[in-house]
Amino acid sequence: MPRRQCPFCYHQWSRPEKIRVHLLDYHREVLSDEFLQGIHAARGQALVAYLDDYQVRVLLQNVLSIPLFTSENAGYVVQL
Ligand SMILES: [Zn+2]
Least C-beta-crowded within 10 Å: which of 3, 15, 58, 76? Predict the structure, then answer.
């Protein structure tokens, strides 16, 4: 499994159970209730997919705060 990066810092991880512990230990105070429920409910690949989805949403929020729409990201915006 390729190494991935924590959504909130430069921590690298490769096992879903490790990132769950890391998120709760280091970032609990900034996590929303919805996100906490999401990472508690998801296991294994489902947790990886949940985090990937979360990262896309954060990325889009950052993008959307700037009035910058391109044909590349238009499809993602519609899917939300
Ligand atoms: Zn982190």
Answer: 3
Ligand 1 centroid to Cα of residue 21, in Å, is 10
By the 8 A CB rule, do 46 and 39 touch?
A: no
Ligand 1 center to 3 CA (angstroms): 13
CA 59/CA 55 separation, integer angstroms = 6
> How far is ligand 1, taken at its centre, from the CA of residue 41, in Å?
19
Q: What are the structure tokens assigned to 26, written together?
A: 């280091």
Give me ligand 1 centre to Cα 48, in Å: 14
Find out whether 37 and 22 touch, Cβ atoms under 8 Å. no
Q: What is the pLDDT of residues 28-45, one digit of tens each?
A: 998 888 889 999 999 999
Which pTM was predicted?
0.67
